[in-house]
Amino acid sequence: MKKIISLVLVALIAVSCVMGLASCGNSGSTDSKAADSKTEEVKELHMATNAFFEPYEYYKDKKVVGIDAELADAICDKLGYKLVIDDMDFDAIITSVTSGKADFGMAGMTVTDERKKSVDFTDTYTTSTQVIIVPEKDSKVSKTDDLEKASIGVQLGTTGDIFVSDFKEAKIERFKKGADAVLALTKGKVDAVVIDKQPAEKFVEANEGIKILDEPFAEEEYAICLKKGSDLTAKFNKALKELKKDGTVQKIIDKYIGD
Ligand code: ARG
């Protein structure tokens, strides 16, 4: 009996040692778990995005392509990582980065002070503005102020959403995808859609009967977000700088935004 008890004890001690060691091994790292999951082979970096935002990220032949996808690939290449793209709702990206599920977020994401409270941003890689899309004919909205009396479609959690939230009288419909907001517009379910300029141009190209209003909006800067304090941010900035200098960034943008 004594022998059995001591055998069990030895086994228990062994098991707890192994578990202790395992957790010790993890606690020392500063980068997120996703980056650490593969130690020996090529390490992966997980990019959180919302891939319904042409020309920045969208599906082509079941693959996510676009400016962000290609630029992320170029950065990962430089840093010796393999890029893995995780597609999700736009409003889940920041949580995914802060929790360490993803290593970075890249989604035509505008740098805002509010977002800076939860994540760090790299240097900016391009700029954009918000625009208003309306029906080509008989539009209820012909200038920004008209939004006050309108029903407006936006993508949930975007800067377009934040912008229209100031119109207290307006009826705001928040959609998971920008494309769904545009669909509602083409069906006459909303009077206008507020969204970033380049995706808006792609939507207008792809849908009959809608146009972009020529109204001025403030410029927004797009950047990559990372977990606060991540040592990847400096590496990303270094890679970005080199890719700007050698013309890669511009080449990628030109490839997707032909003027
Ligand atoms: N620039 C806007 C923002 O940061 C919209 C981005 C939406 N991106 C997307 N991939 N759906 O809020």
Question: Your description of this structure?
Answer:
- The chain has helices spanning 2-27, 33-36, 67-79, 93-98, 113-116, 159-164, 178-186, 197-206, 232-245, 248-256, and strands at 44-49, 52-53, 57-60, 63-65, 82-87, 104-105, 119-121, 126-135, 151-155, 171-175, 192-196, 210-212, 219-222, 225-227.
- It has 259 residues and is an alpha/beta fold.
- Strands 8, 9, 10, 11, 12 and 13 form a 6-stranded mixed beta sheet that branches. Strands 5-1-6-14-7 form a 5-stranded mixed beta sheet.
- Helix 3 packs across helix 9 and helix 3 (67-79) runs antiparallel to helix 10.
- The longest helix is centred in the N-terminal third of the chain and has 26 residues, at 2-27.
- It is globular.
- The N and C termini lie far apart (84 Å).
- The structure holds arginine.
Supply database-style keywords.
single chain; 259 residues; alpha/beta; 6-stranded mixed sheet; 5-stranded mixed sheet; 10 helices; globular; binds arginine
Globally, the shape reads: globular
End-to-end Cα distance = 84 Å
Mean pLDDT: 89
* Main sheet summary: 6 strands, mixed
Q: Please, how many helices?
A: 10
Q: Determine Rg (CA atoms, Å).
A: 23 Å
Low-confidence stretches: 17-31
Q: Say which molecules are bound, naming each kind only once.
A: arginine
